[in-house]
Design brief:
With about 1000 residues, this protein is of the alpha+beta class. It is built from 30 helices and 29 strands. The strands form 8 sheets. Strands 7-8-9-10-11-14-15-16 form an 8-stranded antiparallel β-barrel. A 6-stranded mixed β-sheet has the order 23-24-25-20-26-27, with helices on both faces. The N terminus is likely disordered.
C-alpha cells in the first residue's frame, strides 16, 4: 500500500547539525527573507495568520516543511490555517461572524466546508504507531496537507447528506535550506514538496477501524481513483533526474564529485496511480480526537507496495452556517444493532413477563379455588364447608351399585422365566370369587363388607395374584381363567371396569388433594359430564374417605411437606373410585400405617364394599379387629399354593378340624396363627392343610354359590361398567396444567436455567464485545459461536432425569388408562422445550448484538436464522439427553452416558479437531455430531456472503490480506452451501431422538 514518508534524497551524504545550532538559527530565520526560497518559489505552502516558514539555514533536513504559528492558542496546522476556537475566526467575505470551529470534530466534512475555496483542511504529521514512527524517522519533518473539496455531484453511496468530493494531498518533507554560499549550488533543487495526489469520487461513511486504530468505529473516506504527480508540477527537476536514482553531478569544478540534491519518487513511498484509496480516522467522539488530533490510516487495498501508513491529523475550519458537522450517527449496522438489541430485550421481557404472570395467576386461582367460592354450606356429616355448587345429599344413590356383580378366577399356574432355560412357578391352583348384590342362599349369603383378603407370608405371590386379576402387566406365563359375570375378560377389559391402588403411594407431591382428584376426574369421567358434575363427584369421594380436612393440602414428597401416610393411602384409593368401579384392587393398603390409621383405612374400604364395590386386597398380619372386617379370605403358602379360599366365618372351624395343626390360643389373632403355621411348621403340615381343604365339603358349597350368583348376574352387561378415557387433546392439556403447577411450585431449576443462561449470555457478550474483522476477530467470532453451542449441549444434561423423576407415577397412571404414552410424551417434551429451552436460548440475542455478529453483511434474515439454529441445536441436545435418560432407569448411569455423548459430539464439532487433519473415521464421526451441524450452520450464517474481513500479521500490523467470508469458510473447510443441509440435519436429529425416546417410553412396563 502507499505510504507518505519514506521518500529519500539522492546525490550525497546528509549533513548532521548539532541541535544547539538549529535552535540558535530558528529565531533569526523566522524573519529572514532569504529563508526557504525554494518553498516560496513553488508557492505550495503559504503560511497564514502571521506564520512563517521554519528554517535552520543549513544543510540539515529539518527546514521549510511547516510554518511556525505565532499564537498556538488560536491557530495551528502545517500552514497555521486551522482555527482552534470560534473566537479566533475572522468574519467571512459577507461580514458574517463565525458560529463555530471544527477543531477536534473529526474528519467528516460538512457541506459548508466542502464549498469553501480551500475545502476542508486536514493538517497531518507522519506517525501514529511504532512501525510508522520508525519509517517516518527516515524522512524527518514529514507533513501532509489534505484538502477536501466538493465536486457538485450527488453522492451515489455512503453519507447521503454530502455530495461526492475529491481529496488533494501534498506531502512536504524537511529539506536543506542553503540560500547562498559555496554549498548553495548543490541544493538548487532542494524543494520541500515531495509529491501531490488527487483522489476523486470520494464518499464518507462510518465503519470498522483499520490498522493500529483501536477505536470502536471510524470515519471512512473511500475514493475511487488516484491521480499522482511526483514531483508536483511546480517543482523543477534536477539535471539527470530519474524517478528512482540519483540526480546528475554538479558542473565542474566538482572536486568532491557531488550530485545535485532532490527528493525522488520511490514507488513504496507514495500512492499508486489509477487505483482507489481509503482514509480511515477515529471519530470526533473518541477520547484522543477531542484533543484536536485524530489517528488516521491511509491505504490502498490493491496496491502492490505495502499496506499503508499511520498519520496524525488535525482539523479546524471556521464555520459560518453550523457549529459542528451534522452527525451521521452510527453506521447502519450499529443503528440496526442498537435498535435490534433494545427491541429484542423489550420483546423478551414482554414474553417472559407474560409467561410468568399468566402462569402464576393460573396456579394462584387453582390453588385458592375453595376460598374463591361463595355461599358455603355444611352438609350433614361433612368435616368442613364445601361450596354451594357442590350441594348433593350424601345418602343412598350417589354411591350405591345395584344388581349382582361377581368376579371368579381359577389360576392353574403362573411361571416366570429365569436365566437360561430355568423357570420358577410362583402360583399353583389358586381360585376364588367375590360378589355383590343378592346372593339368595343361606345366612352366610347375606350382604356384608364385600372385602376379599389375600393373606400369606412375604414372597407367597400376593401382589402377583393381584396383578394377574387386575389385568396389570406381568412378565410370566399365566394358565387359568378369569371371569366377570361368567364372561371371560382380557387384561384390557379388566383395567376398564376395575380400579387398582398399588402398595406404594405414587402421587405428585406438589399437587393438592383437590387438584389431584380433579385431574383424575377430568380424564376418567364421561366426556359429557360438566365441570360442576366432576367437582361434585370429587367432593363425594373426599367426604366418603374423610379427606375434607386436607383437601387444600399438598400431597407432599421429599421436597414438600404434605399429608400423612394414611391420608396418602386414602387419596390413592379415592383416585380409583372416581369412575365408580365395581371392583377395586388394593395391594397391602395398610403397609406403613400405624394401627389406628390402618383400621381407619380398612373401615373406609368396608363402607365401599357395603356400597356395592368388590374390594380385593392383599394384607400382611392384620390385627384382629381389622381381620374381622374381611368377608372372604384366600390364604397362600410360601410356595404360592392355595391353603384356603372361602368365607372368613368358616375359616376358624375349618382349621379346628385338622388334627395335625398346633393348638390355637383363644386370645390369639387368627391371621397371626395361620401365618405362624405356614411359616414356622414343616411343609408336610402345610400340605396337610391344602389337602384337607381340597377334600372338604366347602369346595362343593363354593361351586354351588358361584352357580347361584351366576344365575342372578349374567344379565348385567360389562360395557356399562367400563371407565371412560379423555381424548388426546384433553390429556395433553391436563398434563400440561399439572406440569406448570409443579414447575412454579418448585421453580429452582427453571430459575437456575434462566439466570445462568442470562449471565452466560452477558458475560460472553462482554468478553467478545465488538469483535473486530481481522484474523483475531475471525477466531473470536468462531470461538464465541462454538461456546454457545457448547453451553447448550452441557445445559441439556438437565433433561436426563426428566423421565426418571416421575417414571413410577407415569407407569401407574398409564396402567390405569388415565392417559396415553403419546399424550404424556407430548406434554413433557413441549413443557420442557418451551420454558426451559426456547425462551432461555433467546437470551443469546444479547450476545449476538454485543459481539457484533453478522456485522459485515446486510442480510436481514441472519438474526432469526441465528435463533433458529440455536433452538434446533438445543432441541437436538435435549432430545439426545432425554433419549439416554429413557434408556437407563438409574439417573447416575444415564448422566454418565449423556456426558460421554456430549463430549464426543464436542470433539467432532469441527472446532477442536481441525478438518484439515480429519481421517476417515473422524470425518465419518462428524456426520453423527449434532454440534458439527450447529457450528457449521452458525459459521455459514455469519460469514457467507460477507466482506470486509482481513488477515493481518502480528509482527507488522500494516501487512494484511483482504478476504471475504466465503474465503474464511473455505480456509477452515466449511462448505458455504450447507446451511439448509445443516438446519435440516439438526431437525432430523431432534426428531429421531424424540422418536426413539417415545418408543422407549412405549415399551416401558
Amino acid at each position: 500500500m502507499a505510504r507518505f514518508c519514506t521518500a529519500r534524497p539522492r546525490g550525497g551524504a546528509e549533513v548532521r547539525v548539532a541541535l544547539a545550532m538549529v535552535l540558535a538559527a530558528t529565531v533569526a530565520s523566522a524573519a529572514d527573507p532569504e529563508a526557504c526560497l525554494k518553498m516560496k518559489e513553488i508557492g505550495l505552502l503559504k503560511c497564514k495568520h502571521g506564520g512563517s516558514l521554519y528554517s535552520a539555514l543549513n544543510e540539515s533536513r529539518l527546514s521549510c516543511s511547516q510554518c511556525e504559528c505565532p499564537d498556538e492558542e488560536k491557530w495551528t496546522g502545517v500552514d497555521c490555517s486551522l482555527c482552534k476556537t470560534r473566537e479566533s475566526c475572522p468574519p467571512d467575505a459577507e461580514g458574517r461572524k463565525a458560529v463555530g470551529c471544527s477543531f477536534g470534530m473529526g474528519i467528516r466534512p460538512t457541506a459548508e466546508e466542502l464549498a469553501q475555496p480551500r475545502g476542508k483542511i486536514l493538517s497531518c504529521a507522519c506517525g501514529g504507531d511504532p512501525l510508522s514512527e520508525q519509517a517516518c524517522a527516515m524522512q524527518p519533518n514529514t507533513f501532509a496537507m489534505i484538502s477536501m473539496k466538493g465536486t457538485g455531484n450527488a453522492s451515489s453511496a455512503g453519507d447521503e447528506e454530502l455530495p461526492d468530493f475529491e481529496i488533494q494531498i501534498t506531502e512536504f518533507a524537511g529539506a536543506p535550506d542553503v540560500p547562498q554560499g559555496p554549498r548553495a549550488r548543490r541544493y538548487e533543487y532542494a524543494y520541500p514538496a515531495v509529491w501531490n495526489a488527487t483522489l476523486s469520487g470520494c464518499r464518507h461513511s462510518v465503519g470498522p477501524c483499520y490498522g493500529p486504530i483501536k477505536a470502536t468505529s471510524c470515519d471512512v473516506i473511500q475514493c475511487g481513483n488516484t491521480s499522482m504527480d511526483c514531483p508536483p508540477p511546480q517543482v523543477k527537476k534536477c539535471p539527470g533526474w530519474e524517478q528512482v536514482g540519483d540526480c546528475g553531478p554538479l558542473p565542474e569544478p566538482n572536486p568532491n564529485r557531488e550530485n545535485f540534491w532532490e527528493f525522488h519518487c520511490i514507488p513504496m513511498s507514495m500512492p499508486v496511480n489509477g487505483i482507489d484509496g481509503t482514509l480511515v480516522c477515529e471519530r470526533g467522539s473518541e477520547p484522543n480526537a477531542t484533543l484536536g488530533e485524530a489517528k488516521c490510516y491511509f491505504y490502498q487495498k490493491n496496491s502492490p507496495f505495502g499496506q499503508g501508513i499511520a498519520i496524525k491529523c488535525k482539523t479546524g475550519n471556521c464555520l459560518y452556517n453550523s457549529t459542528s458537522p451534522p452527525s451521521p450517527g452510527p453506521e447502519p449496522e450499529d443503528t440496526y444493532r442498537v435498535t435490534a438489541l433494545v427491541a429484542t430485550n423489550l420483546l423478551f421481557a414482554l414474553v417472559l413477563g407474560t409467561f410468568i404472570f399468566s402462569s402464576g395467576f393460573f396456579v394462584y386461582k387453582e390453588t385458592r379455588k375453595w376460598q374463591l367460592e361463595a355461599d358455603f354450606i355444611t352438609p350433614q356429616n361433612a368435616e368442613r364447608r364445601v361450596p354451594l355448587e357442590f350441594q348433593e345429599t350424601l345418602s343412598g344413590g350417589a354411591h350405591a351399585h345395584t344388581g349382582a356383580f361377581y368376579l371368579e378366577w381359577k389360576i392353574e399356574s403362573y411361571i416366570v422365566h429365569l436365566r437360561g432355560t430355568a423357570e420358577k412357578r410362583i402360583l399353583k391352583n389358586v381360585s376364588g370369587f367375590v360378589s355383590t348384590g343378592e346372593r339368595g342362599r343361606g345366612a352366610e349369603m347375606r350382604n356384608e363388607t364385600n372385602i376379599f383378603a389375600i393373606l400369606g407370608p412375604s414372597g407367597a405371590g400376593k401382589t402377583t395374584l393381584l396383578d394377574i386379576l387386575a389385568g396389570r402387566s406381568t412378565v410370566g406365563r399365566v394358565s387359568g381363567d378369569i371371569r366377570v359375570n361368567s364372561t371371560p375378560v382380557t387384561p384390557t377389559t379388566m383395567t376398564q371396569i376395575a380400579g387398582y391402588a398399588p402398595q406404594s403411594d405414587i402421587l405428585p407431591g406438589t399437587s393438592t388433594v383437590w387438584e389431584y382428584l380433579l385431574f383424575h376426574a377430568n380424564l376418567r369421567l364421561h366426556p359429557t359430564a360438566t365441570p360442576a358434575e366432576k367437582k361434585v363427584r370429587v367432593r363425594d369421594i373426599v367426604l366418603q374417605l374423610g379427606l375434607m380436612k386436607v383437601v387444600d393440602s399438598f400431597i407432599g414428597d421429599e421436597y414438600t411437606r404434605g399429608i400423612s401416610g394414611g391420608e396418602k393411602k386414602r387419596v390413592s384409593v379415592a383416585s380409583e373410585l372416581l369412575h365408580k368401579p365395581r371392583i377395586l384392587f388394593l395391594d397391602e393398603p395398610t403397609t406403613g400405617l400405624d394401627s389406628t390409621n390402618a383400621a381407619t383405612m380398612v373401615g373406609a374400604l368396608a363402607q365401599l364394599g357395603e356400597g356395592g364395590i368388590n374390594v380385593i386386597l392383599s394384607i400382611q398380619q392384620p390385627r384382629s379387629d381389622i381381620f374381622r372386617l374381611m368377608e372372604r379370605v384366600l390364604v397362600l403358602s410360601c410356595h404360592g399354593e392355595m391353603v384356603y379360599s372361602g368365607p372368613l366365618s368358616n375359616f376358624r372351624t375349618f382349621l379346628a378340624e385338622i388334627p395335625s395343626l398346633p393348638v390355637k390360643n383363644e386370645q390369639e389373632n387368627l391371621a397371626d396363627y395361620i401365618l405362624d403355621v405356614i411359616i414356622k411348621t414343616e411343609d408336610k403340615t402345610v400340605n396337610s392343610i391344602i389337602l384337607a381343604y381340597q377334600g372338604s365339603t366347602m369346595v362343593e358349597e363354593e361351586n354351588m354359590l358361584v352357580h347361584d350368583i351366576y344365575t342372578s348376574s349374567s344379565s348385567v352387561p360389562l360395557a356399562e361398567k367400563a371407565k371412560h378415557s379423555a381424548g388426546y387433546s384433553r390429556q395433553v392439556v391436563e398434563l400440561s396444567k399439572r406440569l406448570l403447577k409443579n414447575t412454579l411450585r418448585q421453580p429452582f431449576l427453571i430459575y437456575l436455567n434462566f439466570v445462568s443462561t442470562g449471565l452466560i449470555a452477558i458475560m460472553l457478550g462482554l468478553v467478545f464485545f465488538k469483535t473486530r474483522v481481522d484474523f483475531t476477530g475471525i477466531q473470536n467470532r468462531m470461538g464465541s459461536m462454538f461456546f454457545i453451542v457448547l453451553y447448550l449441549g452441557l445445559a441439556s444434561l438437565s433433561s436426563v432425569p426428566v423421565w426418571n423423576e416421575n417414571r413410577l407415577l407415569f407407569l401407574r397412571e398409564r396402567a390405569s388408562g388415565l392417559y396415553s404414552t403419546f399424550a404424556y410424551f407430548t406434554s413433557m417434551v413441549l413443557f420442557d422445550i418451551l420454558p426451559m429451552r426456547i425462551i432461555p436460548t433467546c437470551m443469546f440475542s444479547l450476545s449476538y448484538f454485543m459481539i457484533g455478529l453478522s456485522s459485515t453483511t446486510d442480510a436481514i434474515l441472519h438474526y432469526p436464522t441465528f435463533l433458529v439454529i440455536l433452538i434446533l441445536a438445543n432441541a437436538s441436545a435435549v432430545s439426545m439427553s432425554m433419549c439416554i435418560g429413557a434408556c437407563f432407569p438409574d439417573t447416575k448411569i444415564a448422566n454418565a452416558f449423556a456426558s460421554l455423548a456430549i463430549l464426543i459430539s464436542i470433539m467432532y464439532s469441527g472446532f477442536i479437531l481441525s478438518r484439515h487433519t480429519m481421517g476417515g473415521f473422524a470425518k465419518a464421526a462428524t456426520d453423527f455430531s449434532f454440534m458439527n451441524y450447529a457450528f457449521e450452520a452458525l459459521l455459514i450464517n455469519e460469514f457467507h456472503g460477507a466482506e470486509g474481513y482481513y488477515f493481518n500479521s502480528y509482527a507488522d500490523s500494516r501487512l494484511r490480506v483482504n478476504v471475504t467470508g466465503d474465503e474464511v469458510l473455505e480456509l477452515f473447510h466449511f462448505d458455504a452451501n450447507n446451511l439448509l443441509l445443516d438446519i435440516s440435519a439438526l431437525f432430523l436429529v431432534a426428531c429421531t431422538f424424540f422418536m426413539l425416546c417415545f418408543l422407549l417410553l412405549l415399551r416401558e412396563r
